[in-house]
User: Fold this.
Amino acid sequence: MTAPENNSREVGKRVAFIAALVLILGFYFLLLGKIALSLISSGSIPAALLGVGVLLLPLLGVWIVASSVRAAFAHQHLAKLIHAEGLELDTSDLPRRPSGRLEREAADQLFERVKVEWEADPDNWRTNYRAARAYDYAGDRTRAREVMRRAVELERQERTARQS
Assistant:
């Protein structure tokens, strides 16, 4: 099996898994909502207050799932654009741990290399995307998410400006 076929199959498995989780969560949220509504309509003030609290859980859950899925689609959109432009980070020759993650020193060196281009052009979504991926490889997930959100926003601004 070739690498693109294997990668495509792996992506398909992940998408199916995520879709299954979203469906299960949707069912769970519906059950919680039904329980909440029955508590609210029970006529008892403590039960009604508990019902309002229980109703907040599925609403919060729906918001979290929706924002996570929306972010995943936005990140995937940028990944496709970066791939099409040939600007993906090449990690194929970097040493890896048995888990498949990059060795810490190699990931840090990759980040330092990408950081230079990012600092030279901080308002370019491409350098932000590459920096976010480098942060991720280096294990700094918080900064990776922050910089990826910036990359998404910068790409959106660029696309809007082109359409105007």
